[in-house]
Amino acid sequence: MLEYRIDQQFEVRYDYPVCFTRDAFAPGNPVLADLLRPPSGGRARLLVAVDDGVANALPGLCDAIEAYAETHAETVELACPPWAVRGGEAAKNAGADVDAFYRRVVRFGVCRHSYVAVIGGGAVLDAIGYAAATAHRGIRLVRMPSTVLGQNDAGVGVKNAVNWMGRKNFLGTFVPPFAVVNDFALLASGPAADRRAGIAEAVKVALIRDAAFFARLLRERHALADLQPHALEPMIVRCAELHLAQIRCGGDPFERGSARPLDFGHWSAHSLEELSGHRLRHGEAVAIGIALDTLYSRRVGLLGAADAQQVLALLADLGFVLSDPALARLDIAGALAAFREHLGGALCITLLAGIGRGVEVDTIDTQAMADCVRMLADWHPRRAGVAPVPAGALS
Ligand SMILES: NC(=O)c1ccc[n+]([C@@H]2O[C@H](COP(=O)([O-])OP(=O)(O)OC[C@H]3O[C@@H](n4cnc5c(N)ncnc54)[C@H](O)[C@@H]3O)[C@@H](O)[C@H]2O)c1
Ligand SMILES: [Zn+2]
């Protein structure tokens, strides 16, 4: 029998700025120093972790960070010289990197009132983000993403994670960052294929939330395919804005329910990445997943033929190869089951009821989906700009 019950309730408000700049560590750039300036005076103690892919591509970066701290010595004090962390998925696979972070925190006196800045791709942001969120029960984190995907998606949200026993993102927390600084000048040194892959997340969020953004992507597709900064940079800003709006206004920032609209196109993408032995980058697999769920949305009568045609044409014109051999090995039922487990509840898949209009469904007709997989696997764009859709598929 219940003897006593107290209903505890409180709310916590989160605020964090997402800043866009160029050459964040140029001595005269005030963005980072302004963010770090403690409101009550004194100096911010800062531990900087740098993705070694970035450090190798930009050999002057670590010196520039130290020079920046000297220039802004009234505001910032480096706890130790910038620390290079191995880049890519390896950062998330090995507990050793997280452990090395904890040891640095202890050794260099980084306390709960200090700051951690992490410069890198989504993987390093995730790993150091997880380590910072758990050391001292949370050290303030400034994310400085160095990839397109990091700047327009992974780096602006509230999640971090590392992999454990081969399970992707098994250990992780929901912790909003203290701030995000997107430095456009970091992007150019990354591989072209990585920059292109990040564009898929913009197509994704445009399709579920913003028809005008989709129209803009369509207009700018050739400049985007050429990775021209004048097209990439506004794309990153709008994509980040839409991800932030979904987290802020979607009613479920910490993903307690099952709907995950930002995972449009991802149920098959996760599986295709694995089936390809990670030959397919995340964004490349997402582009295929978007194409597949677009074909399926058309097939079940949710989406008009012309709209479906435009989506596939855009992805092809952006340079994505949609008919990957991994499609032939896609186990639809298995991938949907794995995705349901990833959602942690009932199956909830986002489809399209129009450009800019994502809708959630709780069942997938696996036969119809198998037809769409076959269509996509056999499909080859005849030439850029011409809607490259299998005859009869979209009528
Ligand atoms: N937390 C989230 O909400 C979230 C969302 C989406 C993706 N992610 C995670 O992001 C990761 C993928 O991130 P990614 O696509 O940014 O790739 P990545 O972090 O795997 O980096 C790819 C490679 O590029 C190198 N690199 C990064 N920036 C560079 C630069 N400017 N110059 C030269 N080399 C550079 C890295 O060292 C690495 O070798 C995955 O682990 C994924 O799970 C997290
Ligand atoms: Zn994604």
Automatic annotation (TrEMBL):
Query: Is the Repeat keyword given for this protein?
Result: no
EC number of this enzyme: 4.2.3.4
Task: Name the Gene3D superfamilies on file.
Answer: 3.40.50.1970, Dehydroquinate synthase-like - alpha domain
Q: Keywords assigned by UniProt?
A: Amino-acid biosynthesis, Aromatic amino acid biosynthesis, Lyase, NAD
Q: Which cofactors are named for this entry?
A: NAD(+)
Every copy of the 3-dehydroquinate synthase C-terminal domain together lies at 198-323
- 3-dehydroquinate synthase N-terminal domain ranges (all copies): 85-192
Q: Which InterPro entries match?
A: Dehydroquinate_synthase, DHQS/DOIS_N, DHQS_C
The keyword NAD is assigned to this record: yes
Q: Which SUPFAM superfamilies match?
A: Dehydroquinate synthase-like
Which PANTHER family does the record cross-reference, listed alphabetically?
3-DEHYDROQUINATE SYNTHASE, 3-DEHYDROQUINATE SYNTHASE, CHLOROPLASTIC
Q: What is the name of this protein?
A: 3-dehydroquinate synthase
Q: Which species is this UniProt entry from?
A: Pseudoduganella flava
The upper taxonomy is: Bacteria, Pseudomonadati, Pseudomonadota, Betaproteobacteria, Burkholderiales
